[in-house]
Specification:
- The chain is an alpha+beta fold.
- The chain has helices spanning about 15-25, 65-115, 120-135, 160-175, 210-255, 260-275, 280-295, 305, 315-320, 325-330, 340-345, 370-380, 395-405, 410-420, 425-430, and strands at about 1-5, 5-10, 30-35, 50, 55-60, 140-145, 150, 175-180, 185-190, 195-200.
- Helix 3 runs antiparallel to helix 5 (about 210-255).
Length: about 425
Protein backbone atom coordinates (compact mmCIF):
# COMPACT_ATOMS: atom_id res chain seq x y z
CA UNK A 1 0.00 0.00 0.00
CA UNK A 2 1.44 3.38 -1.00
CA UNK A 3 0.52 7.00 -1.69
CA UNK A 4 0.78 8.31 -5.25
CA UNK A 5 -0.35 11.78 -6.35
CA UNK A 6 -2.33 12.08 -3.12
CA UNK A 7 -4.21 8.80 -3.83
CA UNK A 8 -3.83 5.66 -1.74
CA UNK A 9 -2.74 2.82 -4.03
CA UNK A 10 -3.92 -0.57 -2.78
CA UNK A 11 -2.02 -3.83 -3.46
CA UNK A 12 -3.62 -5.73 -6.34
CA UNK A 13 -2.08 -9.20 -6.02
CA UNK A 14 -4.94 -10.73 -4.04
CA UNK A 15 -7.59 -9.16 -6.28
CA UNK A 16 -5.87 -10.37 -9.46
CA UNK A 17 -5.57 -13.95 -8.21
CA UNK A 18 -9.24 -14.19 -7.19
CA UNK A 19 -10.58 -12.63 -10.43
CA UNK A 20 -8.44 -14.92 -12.59
CA UNK A 21 -9.83 -17.98 -10.80
CA UNK A 22 -13.38 -16.67 -11.24
CA UNK A 23 -12.78 -15.96 -14.96
CA UNK A 24 -11.30 -19.40 -15.64
CA UNK A 25 -14.30 -21.06 -13.98
CA UNK A 26 -16.49 -19.34 -16.63
CA UNK A 27 -14.13 -20.16 -19.53
CA UNK A 28 -12.86 -16.55 -19.75
CA UNK A 29 -9.36 -15.05 -19.75
CA UNK A 30 -8.48 -12.24 -17.34
CA UNK A 31 -5.38 -10.06 -17.82
CA UNK A 32 -4.26 -7.06 -15.82
CA UNK A 33 -2.34 -4.00 -17.07
CA UNK A 34 -1.15 -0.70 -15.59
CA UNK A 35 -3.97 1.83 -15.44
CA UNK A 36 -2.18 4.13 -17.90
CA UNK A 37 -1.65 1.45 -20.57
CA UNK A 38 -3.83 1.61 -23.71
CA UNK A 39 -5.20 -1.89 -24.35
CA UNK A 40 -7.52 -0.92 -27.22
CA UNK A 41 -4.80 -0.04 -29.75
CA UNK A 42 -4.22 -3.70 -30.61
CA UNK A 43 -5.82 -5.14 -33.78
CA UNK A 44 -6.82 -8.21 -31.85
CA UNK A 45 -10.16 -8.33 -30.08
CA UNK A 46 -9.58 -6.14 -26.99
CA UNK A 47 -12.51 -7.76 -25.16
CA UNK A 48 -14.14 -5.95 -22.26
CA UNK A 49 -12.22 -3.68 -19.90
CA UNK A 50 -12.74 -2.66 -16.26
CA UNK A 51 -10.84 0.23 -14.66
CA UNK A 52 -9.64 -0.31 -11.10
CA UNK A 53 -8.21 3.13 -10.16
CA UNK A 54 -7.73 2.44 -6.45
CA UNK A 55 -5.45 -0.47 -7.44
CA UNK A 56 -3.84 1.47 -10.33
CA UNK A 57 -4.76 -1.49 -12.56
CA UNK A 58 -6.87 -2.17 -15.67
CA UNK A 59 -8.67 -5.52 -16.17
CA UNK A 60 -9.08 -6.99 -19.66
CA UNK A 61 -11.58 -9.84 -20.10
CA UNK A 62 -11.89 -12.10 -23.14
CA UNK A 63 -14.24 -15.02 -23.66
CA UNK A 64 -17.77 -16.00 -24.62
CA UNK A 65 -19.98 -12.90 -24.74
CA UNK A 66 -22.64 -14.44 -22.51
CA UNK A 67 -20.04 -15.16 -19.82
CA UNK A 68 -17.80 -12.06 -19.93
CA UNK A 69 -20.62 -9.96 -18.49
CA UNK A 70 -20.93 -12.26 -15.48
CA UNK A 71 -17.19 -12.11 -14.86
CA UNK A 72 -17.27 -8.30 -15.05
CA UNK A 73 -20.03 -8.12 -12.44
CA UNK A 74 -18.14 -10.55 -10.21
CA UNK A 75 -14.91 -8.53 -10.66
CA UNK A 76 -16.70 -5.30 -9.68
CA UNK A 77 -18.06 -6.87 -6.48
CA UNK A 78 -14.70 -8.40 -5.60
CA UNK A 79 -12.87 -5.11 -6.24
CA UNK A 80 -15.34 -3.26 -4.00
CA UNK A 81 -15.08 -5.80 -1.16
CA UNK A 82 -11.30 -6.15 -1.30
CA UNK A 83 -10.87 -2.37 -1.58
CA UNK A 84 -13.02 -1.83 1.52
CA UNK A 85 -10.98 -4.38 3.51
CA UNK A 86 -7.68 -2.91 2.33
CA UNK A 87 -8.84 0.62 3.17
CA UNK A 88 -9.88 -0.53 6.64
CA UNK A 89 -6.50 -2.22 7.10
CA UNK A 90 -4.75 0.94 5.92
CA UNK A 91 -6.78 3.08 8.35
CA UNK A 92 -5.90 0.76 11.23
CA UNK A 93 -2.24 0.85 10.26
CA UNK A 94 -2.36 4.64 10.13
CA UNK A 95 -4.05 4.80 13.53
CA UNK A 96 -1.49 2.43 15.05
CA UNK A 97 1.33 4.51 13.56
CA UNK A 98 -0.19 7.71 14.91
CA UNK A 99 -0.66 6.16 18.35
CA UNK A 100 2.94 4.99 18.31
CA UNK A 101 4.11 8.50 17.37
CA UNK A 102 2.00 9.95 20.17
CA UNK A 103 3.42 7.51 22.70
CA UNK A 104 6.97 8.16 21.47
CA UNK A 105 6.42 11.92 21.80
CA UNK A 106 4.90 11.60 25.25
CA UNK A 107 7.75 9.30 26.32
CA UNK A 108 10.27 11.85 25.06
CA UNK A 109 8.48 14.61 26.94
CA UNK A 110 8.33 12.44 30.08
CA UNK A 111 12.10 11.92 29.92
CA UNK A 112 12.69 15.66 29.57
CA UNK A 113 10.23 16.43 32.37
CA UNK A 114 11.97 13.89 34.57
CA UNK A 115 15.08 16.06 34.39
CA UNK A 116 13.12 19.30 34.94
CA UNK A 117 13.22 20.50 38.53
CA UNK A 118 10.57 23.21 38.33
CA UNK A 119 7.62 24.37 36.24
CA UNK A 120 9.60 26.82 34.05
CA UNK A 121 11.84 23.90 33.02
CA UNK A 122 8.76 21.73 32.40
CA UNK A 123 7.23 24.47 30.22
CA UNK A 124 10.41 24.60 28.13
CA UNK A 125 10.44 20.79 27.73
CA UNK A 126 6.77 20.66 26.68
CA UNK A 127 7.13 23.46 24.14
CA UNK A 128 10.31 22.03 22.65
CA UNK A 129 8.76 18.54 22.36
CA UNK A 130 5.54 19.84 20.75
CA UNK A 131 7.32 22.05 18.21
CA UNK A 132 9.73 19.27 17.27
CA UNK A 133 6.98 16.65 16.96
CA UNK A 134 5.06 18.58 14.27
CA UNK A 135 8.00 20.55 12.79
CA UNK A 136 6.44 23.87 13.80
CA UNK A 137 8.39 26.98 12.77
CA UNK A 138 7.56 28.76 16.02
CA UNK A 139 5.54 28.34 19.17
CA UNK A 140 4.42 29.77 22.47
CA UNK A 141 3.39 28.19 25.74
CA UNK A 142 1.45 30.62 27.92
CA UNK A 143 0.65 30.12 31.59
CA UNK A 144 -2.19 32.35 32.78
CA UNK A 145 -0.44 32.91 36.12
CA UNK A 146 2.99 33.46 34.58
CA UNK A 147 4.97 34.48 31.49
CA UNK A 148 5.11 33.15 27.95
CA UNK A 149 7.84 30.86 26.74
CA UNK A 150 8.72 31.01 23.03
CA UNK A 151 10.55 28.84 20.54
CA UNK A 152 11.56 29.78 17.00
CA UNK A 153 12.71 27.15 14.51
CA UNK A 154 12.26 29.04 11.25
CA UNK A 155 14.69 31.25 9.37
CA UNK A 156 12.57 34.37 10.00
CA UNK A 157 12.11 35.87 13.43
CA UNK A 158 8.60 35.02 14.51
CA UNK A 159 5.99 37.58 15.57
CA UNK A 160 5.83 36.90 19.28
CA UNK A 161 2.89 39.21 19.79
CA UNK A 162 0.74 37.32 17.28
CA UNK A 163 1.57 33.86 18.65
CA UNK A 164 1.12 34.89 22.30
CA UNK A 165 -2.20 36.61 21.42
CA UNK A 166 -3.34 33.37 19.79
CA UNK A 167 -2.37 31.37 22.88
CA UNK A 168 -4.17 33.84 25.16
CA UNK A 169 -7.32 33.64 23.04
CA UNK A 170 -7.33 29.83 23.19
CA UNK A 171 -6.83 29.94 26.97
CA UNK A 172 -9.49 32.57 27.61
CA UNK A 173 -12.06 30.84 25.39
CA UNK A 174 -10.93 27.40 26.58
CA UNK A 175 -11.35 26.27 22.99
CA UNK A 176 -8.91 25.06 20.29
CA UNK A 177 -8.01 27.46 17.46
CA UNK A 178 -7.02 25.51 14.33
CA UNK A 179 -6.09 26.64 10.84
CA UNK A 180 -4.44 23.68 9.11
CA UNK A 181 -2.34 25.90 6.86
CA UNK A 182 -1.19 28.41 9.47
CA UNK A 183 -1.40 27.50 13.12
CA UNK A 184 -2.89 25.47 15.94
CA UNK A 185 -3.60 26.65 19.47
CA UNK A 186 -4.83 24.38 22.26
CA UNK A 187 -5.94 25.32 25.79
CA UNK A 188 -4.20 23.55 28.67
CA UNK A 189 -7.11 22.52 30.85
CA UNK A 190 -7.23 20.43 34.01
CA UNK A 191 -11.04 20.47 33.88
CA UNK A 192 -13.70 21.72 31.47
CA UNK A 193 -13.82 25.21 32.95
CA UNK A 194 -10.34 25.64 34.39
CA UNK A 195 -7.67 26.34 31.73
CA UNK A 196 -4.25 27.09 33.20
CA UNK A 197 -2.71 28.27 29.92
CA UNK A 198 -2.40 27.40 26.24
CA UNK A 199 0.00 25.96 23.68
CA UNK A 200 0.16 27.77 20.31
CA UNK A 201 2.23 26.64 17.32
CA UNK A 202 2.90 28.57 14.13
CA UNK A 203 3.12 27.22 10.55
CA UNK A 204 4.92 23.96 9.92
CA UNK A 205 8.29 24.24 8.23
CA UNK A 206 6.93 21.87 5.56
CA UNK A 207 3.35 20.98 4.63
CA UNK A 208 0.23 21.63 6.67
CA UNK A 209 -1.20 20.33 9.93
CA UNK A 210 -2.87 16.94 9.46
CA UNK A 211 -5.57 15.36 11.57
CA UNK A 212 -2.91 13.10 13.09
CA UNK A 213 -0.92 16.16 14.19
CA UNK A 214 -3.99 17.66 15.83
CA UNK A 215 -4.83 14.42 17.65
CA UNK A 216 -1.28 14.07 18.93
CA UNK A 217 -1.11 17.68 20.10
CA UNK A 218 -4.48 17.38 21.86
CA UNK A 219 -3.14 14.34 23.75
CA UNK A 220 0.11 16.14 24.52
CA UNK A 221 -1.75 19.27 25.71
CA UNK A 222 -3.93 17.21 28.08
CA UNK A 223 -0.88 15.45 29.49
CA UNK A 224 1.05 18.72 29.78
CA UNK A 225 -1.81 20.44 31.62
CA UNK A 226 -1.92 17.70 34.25
CA UNK A 227 1.87 17.74 34.71
CA UNK A 228 2.07 21.54 34.98
CA UNK A 229 -0.84 21.76 37.39
CA UNK A 230 0.50 18.96 39.56
CA UNK A 231 3.92 20.66 39.41
CA UNK A 232 2.37 23.96 40.52
CA UNK A 233 0.54 22.27 43.39
CA UNK A 234 3.69 20.37 44.35
CA UNK A 235 5.76 23.55 44.38
CA UNK A 236 3.09 25.21 46.53
CA UNK A 237 3.22 22.31 48.98
CA UNK A 238 7.00 22.36 48.87
CA UNK A 239 7.01 26.06 49.75
CA UNK A 240 4.62 25.39 52.64
CA UNK A 241 6.77 22.46 53.74
CA UNK A 242 9.98 24.53 53.75
CA UNK A 243 8.18 27.31 55.63
CA UNK A 244 7.14 24.80 58.29
CA UNK A 245 10.70 23.48 58.49
CA UNK A 246 12.06 27.00 58.93
CA UNK A 247 9.54 27.60 61.72
CA UNK A 248 10.88 24.52 63.48
CA UNK A 249 14.44 25.81 63.06
CA UNK A 250 13.42 29.18 64.47
CA UNK A 251 12.00 27.35 67.48
CA UNK A 252 15.45 25.82 68.06
CA UNK A 253 17.07 29.27 67.70
CA UNK A 254 14.66 30.62 70.29
CA UNK A 255 15.95 28.03 72.78
CA UNK A 256 19.58 28.83 71.98
CA UNK A 257 19.95 32.53 70.99
CA UNK A 258 23.75 32.22 70.80
CA UNK A 259 23.42 30.14 67.63
CA UNK A 260 20.65 32.13 65.93
CA UNK A 261 20.88 31.73 62.14
CA UNK A 262 23.32 28.81 62.43
CA UNK A 263 21.14 26.24 60.64
CA UNK A 264 20.33 28.63 57.80
CA UNK A 265 24.01 29.38 57.27
CA UNK A 266 24.88 25.67 57.32
CA UNK A 267 22.13 25.17 54.70
CA UNK A 268 23.63 27.89 52.52
CA UNK A 269 27.18 26.57 52.80
CA UNK A 270 26.03 23.00 52.11
CA UNK A 271 24.09 24.17 49.06
CA UNK A 272 27.16 25.88 47.61
CA UNK A 273 29.20 22.72 48.11
CA UNK A 274 26.49 20.63 46.43
CA UNK A 275 26.45 22.96 43.43
CA UNK A 276 30.23 22.79 43.19
CA UNK A 277 30.15 18.96 43.01
CA UNK A 278 27.32 19.00 40.41
CA UNK A 279 24.69 17.40 42.63
CA UNK A 280 21.20 17.02 41.09
CA UNK A 281 18.53 19.62 41.92
CA UNK A 282 16.47 17.06 43.83
CA UNK A 283 19.45 15.92 45.90
CA UNK A 284 20.40 19.55 46.58
CA UNK A 285 16.93 20.17 48.00
CA UNK A 286 17.18 17.12 50.24
CA UNK A 287 20.65 18.17 51.41
CA UNK A 288 19.36 21.65 52.23
CA UNK A 289 16.55 20.12 54.28
CA UNK A 290 19.02 17.94 56.15
CA UNK A 291 21.23 20.97 56.82
CA UNK A 292 18.31 23.01 58.12
CA UNK A 293 17.24 20.18 60.42
CA UNK A 294 20.64 18.83 61.48
CA UNK A 295 20.33 20.30 64.99
CA UNK A 296 16.60 19.66 65.43
CA UNK A 297 17.39 17.25 68.25
CA UNK A 298 18.59 20.17 70.40
CA UNK A 299 14.95 21.10 70.88
CA UNK A 300 14.82 18.17 73.32
CA UNK A 301 17.79 19.41 75.40
CA UNK A 302 17.32 21.37 78.66
CA UNK A 303 17.72 25.15 78.45
CA UNK A 304 20.39 24.91 81.13
CA UNK A 305 22.65 23.13 78.65
CA UNK A 306 21.84 25.23 75.58
CA UNK A 307 22.30 28.50 77.47
CA UNK A 308 25.35 27.39 79.42
CA UNK A 309 27.89 30.21 79.74
CA UNK A 310 30.58 28.17 81.50
CA UNK A 311 33.75 27.20 79.69
CA UNK A 312 33.01 23.50 79.85
CA UNK A 313 29.97 21.25 80.21
CA UNK A 314 29.90 18.58 82.88
CA UNK A 315 30.37 15.01 81.70
CA UNK A 316 26.68 14.32 82.32
CA UNK A 317 25.66 17.39 80.30
CA UNK A 318 28.02 16.46 77.48
CA UNK A 319 26.50 12.98 77.27
CA UNK A 320 23.07 14.61 76.87
CA UNK A 321 24.38 16.91 74.11
CA UNK A 322 25.77 13.91 72.25
CA UNK A 323 22.25 12.50 72.08
CA UNK A 324 20.86 15.37 69.95
CA UNK A 325 21.51 13.67 66.56
CA UNK A 326 19.50 10.63 67.67
CA UNK A 327 16.78 12.82 69.18
CA UNK A 328 16.50 14.61 65.82
CA UNK A 329 16.13 11.28 64.00
CA UNK A 330 13.52 10.16 66.52
CA UNK A 331 11.45 13.33 65.98
CA UNK A 332 11.47 12.99 62.17
CA UNK A 333 11.37 9.23 61.78
CA UNK A 334 7.61 9.15 61.11
CA UNK A 335 7.76 11.77 58.34
CA UNK A 336 7.90 9.61 55.21
CA UNK A 337 9.12 12.47 52.96
CA UNK A 338 12.23 12.90 55.16
CA UNK A 339 13.36 9.28 55.47
CA UNK A 340 16.25 9.85 53.02
CA UNK A 341 17.80 12.59 55.16
CA UNK A 342 17.63 10.78 58.51
CA UNK A 343 21.18 9.34 58.14
CA UNK A 344 22.56 12.85 57.59
CA UNK A 345 20.86 14.15 60.73
CA UNK A 346 21.96 11.17 62.79
CA UNK A 347 25.56 11.17 61.52
CA UNK A 348 26.56 14.84 61.18
CA UNK A 349 28.83 14.56 64.26
CA UNK A 350 30.54 11.36 63.12
CA UNK A 351 34.21 11.83 62.22
CA UNK A 352 35.99 10.54 59.13
CA UNK A 353 38.51 8.65 61.32
CA UNK A 354 35.75 6.99 63.39
CA UNK A 355 36.22 9.00 66.60
CA UNK A 356 32.89 10.84 66.37
CA UNK A 357 29.46 10.18 67.84
CA UNK A 358 26.88 8.73 68.32
CA UNK A 359 28.01 5.38 66.78
CA UNK A 360 31.65 5.89 65.77
CA UNK A 361 31.28 4.93 62.10
CA UNK A 362 33.95 6.23 59.76
CA UNK A 363 34.94 7.04 56.17
CA UNK A 364 32.51 6.30 53.38
CA UNK A 365 30.16 4.58 55.84
CA UNK A 366 29.11 8.09 56.88
CA UNK A 367 26.44 9.40 54.50
CA UNK A 368 27.59 11.95 51.90
CA UNK A 369 25.10 14.52 53.18
CA UNK A 370 26.45 14.13 56.73
CA UNK A 371 30.07 14.55 55.55
CA UNK A 372 29.14 17.77 53.74
CA UNK A 373 27.09 19.15 56.63
CA UNK A 374 29.88 18.31 59.09
CA UNK A 375 32.29 20.67 57.31
CA UNK A 376 29.72 23.46 56.94
CA UNK A 377 28.64 23.04 60.56
CA UNK A 378 32.22 23.19 61.88
CA UNK A 379 33.10 26.26 59.81
CA UNK A 380 30.06 28.19 61.06
CA UNK A 381 30.68 27.12 64.66
CA UNK A 382 34.30 28.31 64.46
CA UNK A 383 33.40 31.71 62.95
CA UNK A 384 30.49 32.42 65.34
CA UNK A 385 31.24 34.13 68.66
CA UNK A 386 30.86 31.91 71.72
CA UNK A 387 31.57 32.87 75.33
CA UNK A 388 33.55 29.72 76.17
CA UNK A 389 36.14 29.80 73.33
CA UNK A 390 37.88 32.19 70.95
CA UNK A 391 36.24 33.09 67.62
CA UNK A 392 38.16 32.29 64.44
CA UNK A 393 38.21 34.57 61.45
CA UNK A 394 37.59 33.04 58.04
CA UNK A 395 41.24 32.31 57.23
CA UNK A 396 41.83 30.62 60.59
CA UNK A 397 38.69 28.51 60.18
CA UNK A 398 39.67 27.41 56.68
CA UNK A 399 43.16 26.51 57.92
CA UNK A 400 41.56 24.44 60.69
CA UNK A 401 39.47 22.57 58.11
CA UNK A 402 42.60 21.83 56.07
CA UNK A 403 44.50 20.62 59.14
CA UNK A 404 41.69 18.22 60.08
CA UNK A 405 41.06 16.92 56.55
CA UNK A 406 41.32 13.15 56.59
CA UNK A 407 40.78 12.74 60.35
CA UNK A 408 37.76 14.77 61.47
CA UNK A 409 36.53 15.63 57.96
CA UNK A 410 36.15 13.90 54.61
CA UNK A 411 38.97 15.30 52.39
CA UNK A 412 36.59 15.59 49.44
CA UNK A 413 34.10 17.62 51.49
CA UNK A 414 36.86 19.93 52.73
CA UNK A 415 38.08 20.45 49.17
CA UNK A 416 34.54 21.27 48.04
CA UNK A 417 34.24 23.84 50.82
CA UNK A 418 37.58 25.42 49.97
CA UNK A 419 36.57 25.64 46.29
CA UNK A 420 33.25 27.22 47.27
CA UNK A 421 34.76 30.07 49.31
CA UNK A 422 37.54 32.50 48.58
CA UNK A 423 38.77 32.82 52.15
CA UNK A 424 38.06 36.54 52.50
CA UNK A 425 36.51 37.33 55.89
CA UNK A 426 33.43 39.25 54.82
CA UNK A 427 32.69 37.11 51.79
CA UNK A 428 32.82 33.77 53.53
CA UNK A 429 31.15 34.43 56.85
CA UNK A 430 28.25 36.61 55.75
CA UNK A 431 26.77 36.84 59.29
CA UNK A 432 27.13 38.92 62.42
CA UNK A 433 29.40 37.83 65.22
CA UNK A 434 27.45 36.71 68.25
Amino acid sequence: MSLRDGIIVLPSEHLEAVIKIAAESLECQADFFPLEQDIFSSRDDPGEALLLPEFRRKLQLKGPKNKVGKVLETAKKLAKEISAKEQESFSLTQEITERYEQLATLFEMSEKLGMAGDNPSRVAAILDTAATAVSASCGCLLMLDGDCRFVNRGEREMDREAVSALARRAAERNHPEVDEKKYIALPLSVSENLPIGALALGPRTEGIYRSGDVKMLVTLASYAALLLESGRLYEGLETLFFSTIKSMVEAIDAKDPSTRGHSERVRRYSSLMAQKMGMSIQDQKMLELAALLHDLGKIGLPDSILNNVKSRLTEEQWQLVKQHPEIGVSILTHVAQLKNILPAIGQHHERYDGSGYPTGIKGQDISLFARIISVADAYDAMTTQRSYRPTFDSRQALAELRDNSGNQFDPMAVELFLQSFSGADNQTTGHERK
